[in-house]
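user: Here is a favour to ask of a fellow structure person. I have my own habits and do not want them to colour yours. Could you put it straight underneath, so I can go through it closely?

assistant:
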Amino acid sequence: MSEHYLKALADDEALIQKEFDELLQDYLNSNHRKKTEIITKAFNFANNAHKGVKRRSGEPYILHPIAVAKIVLNEIGLGSTSICAALLHDVVEDTNYTTEDIAHYFGPKIAQIVDGLTKISGGVFGEKASEQAENFRKLLLTMSEDIRVILIKIADRLHNMRTLGSMPPAKQYKISGETEYIYAPLAHRLGLFHIKTELENLSFKYDHPETYHEIEQRLETERAALDKFYQEFSKPIFEKLESQGYRFELRQRIKSVFSIWRKMTTRNIPFDEVYDILAIRIIFDPKEGMDERVQCWMIYSAITSIYKPHPERIRDWVSTPKANGYEALHVTVMTPCGRWVEIQIRSRRMHDIAERGLAAHWKYKSGIDEASELDKWLTTIKELLENPEPNAIDFIDTFKLNLFASEIFVFTPKGDIKTIASGATALDFAYMLHTDIGHQSIAAKINHKLMPLSTVLNSGDQVEILTSKKQTPEAEWLDFITTGRAKAKLQDYFKKEEKATMAQGQLEVEKALEEANIEINNDNYNKILGHFNLNNRNELFLLVGQDSLEISAITNVFKPKSQNVFAKILRNPFASSGSSKKEEKPETTEKEEKKFDFKKTYRLNDLELGSSYVVATCCKPIPGDDVLGYVIDNNIIQVHKVQCHTAASLKSNFGNRLVNVEWLAQKGITFTETLEVRGIDRIGILIEILKVISEDHNVNMTKVSIEGEKGLFVGHFKVVVRNTEDINNLINNLMKISEIKSVQRLEQQE
């Protein structure tokens, strides 16, 4: 061996030992029982198993499990069992060791967690990246075994995101999209606020690198001014609380880059109009013998004696915590300089739970073991998993209804308080109470007033569900339910109904074939399916059972072509009704894999619009937008904006079909975009706007609408442009008109 190789080997070993020593020291400094022997044993076992293996970045592979173990310990707060499982989490997946070996050396509990992690691995950076939808379903199944599996998986994803820079761009898009789509909201739902924020930020950084750095630089520019404002604003609060004998700390919380960008895009406002970049956090140690919730309100009283509160922006999660266990009292106050600032009041326990989530719940749990809102949520997820064969993509979309839901509180007729997702309808509430109540619902009494089931509930409503044993679920209910539980129960009901309809359809088809002396075999069924462009027999039986397909049309398939004109005419309608699922989840063909180099970046100006690539109608990107490509049928690249909601689903579920694309200067191709202009109304303002657009910039308009009210106006202008540079120049020049206060490009997202 060369001297250089031996030195590199020694350097690697020294680095590995240093990282593990840091982990061990962090563990010894924690409140956990000091089981260093088994942690050291797990490290030595994993280090030996991964010996000589490198990550894509070039560093020894074992550094990844050590990093995950550090996150598990320091950022989630788990103990020795989870640390060992984190160190061993890739051993069964990547080496010759088995789960039985892990059980033999480390016991059944660690082996069970490692087994759960092994079942859901292999997809993130591997060849089967597109199978993450099904992998994620497996991940959720493990929750019924041990919630630590999902916590370690989140830690694993966080470290992968922190080291994502070594991956090729297409993988970065896929992994960051999947993280934002699933893992960040999952971390939020489990109460891991700090991790959720970092996952969102890192996803955004790789999806929109230029925008990320622009906002980051603006934040850096504003930091000195924010620090000065914080010092001046917090000083009287500090003095007041200190005089009242509280032991506390004040912290400033700067809004994350992702949160700022989301606010800018959802509200169509520039950076300068994001006024809640700074918030203040008060973390206090409760005084003995006094309820900490009462002390939250006492501190609130002290603050509002200094600054005037906003009456409609008090958030009381002290009396009724969020479903993820979050407790705090939020109040927004007005400063002397006319600026609104949010103040978050938390006890030390509340703060620990807000930052560390579920693990902190265990730390503080005492007394009677009541089912928390989080336990109820996990139960709901397990109910979704009981569905025997759900489509993986549909399952994730249903699951996301639970992930993204914020909560409201409603009351039963007896006065019991219930937590349900914001935006839920009376029917959602019915299904939350019981499946049978949901199925038999006919109307609701909301605050003693008779209302339809589609009525959206508000926090504080008292809701009574009226039922009838004659009532059965109706298909249109799916149009207005919003919660994952209600959707799952309805779909389960309709699937059972569908099976009965299929059985009836099968009887009719087989009877018709027998009467026509047509043999019932695979060849004849394939002939029928091919004629109507159906995927399988179940689709055929369902169409017949629903009376959507005439039995005579099926027997006509076997008659001479001259007698088969009517069936040909009916062919397309049946194809569309029977193949929607097929279109939803296209398969990657061998031809596509040969044609497309998924590591290559495709320049859209080298391709022909229409025949080689198409612009997605859901988000309508134009040159200058951050975009990604998705290979659809006929080997055509479909171009999406990176932030498009459809693209987020594609990145998460069909990552192996993504290709890197970029815009270059394109002559002769134009796009229609909508500008929203708001400002102070005056005579001649419209003429001045039209002059800037059509004369100064020589831009064509296809539609103009403008409305004025109480001295203000809002106008929408459809303009024909070549790229984002045209739009930005137009916006900058319109903003030079003194009466105009904002000009925004409206997102085309449908």
Remarks:
- The first helix runs from residue 3 to 28.
